[in-house]
Design goal:
By secondary structure, the chain is α/β, with parallel strands linked by helices. The chain contains seven helices and five strands. It is 43% helix and 16% strand.
């Protein structure tokens, strides 16, 4: 089955790829990597480490101290991730008076499925959401900014939510 959505076809066109070459059976991920790479880099170029596998998630939480804080961004290709969530997180982290958590991590929903599912299994008090931003103390999720808090919000609004998340902790 070939993806036929207009959004997907526009992304392929921008990446100079042919939709006939991208059948679901060939790609266990939602989108070809060439399309999502810039979305990944927006965070990784700013200090975030990607967790691409379930083992990556397990390794992090096995090694993290109980007093350490971890901020995890569940990344996505959607417009609210691109225009609001990622820039909002980065704006908040660069704000005066904000001490970044010990660990800045990201998983990519629809791409790194096992890693995303593992992270979501650790966020027990909140429904799955992408994009989303979760703050962990040790191995426990203490707070989360859900897609419903991001979608329809502004970049400054999300930056404020992230600042509050980090300062209230």
């Amino acid at each position: 089955m070939v993806y036929k959505t207009a959004f997907y076809l526009r992304l392929l066109e921008r990446a100079h790829l042919s939709p006939q070459k991208h059948e679901c059976e060939e790609f266990p991920t939602m989108y070809p990597e060439e399309i999502v790479e810039p979305f990944r880099k927006e965070l990784t170029a700013n200090g975030f480490r990607e967790l691409r596998t379930e083992q990556d998630v397990n390794d992090h939480f096995r090694q993290v101290g109980e007093e350490e804080k971890t901020l995890i961004v569940v990344n996505s290709v959607c417009g609210c991730a691109a225009g609001i969530a990622r820039p909002g997180v980065l704006a908040a982290l660069s704000s005066e008076g904000i001490k970044p958590p010990n660990h800045l991590l990201t998983v990519f929903a629809g791409q790194d499925k096992a890693a995303t599912e593992k992270v979501r299994s650790l966020i027990v008090d909140y429904p799955p959401s992408s994009p989303s931003i979760a703050l962990f103390h040790g191995t426990s999720c203490s707070k989360m900014i859900h897609r419903s808090d991001i979608e329809g919000n502004s970049l400054d609004g999300v930056a404020g939510l992230v600042r509050t998340l980090l300062l209230d902790d």
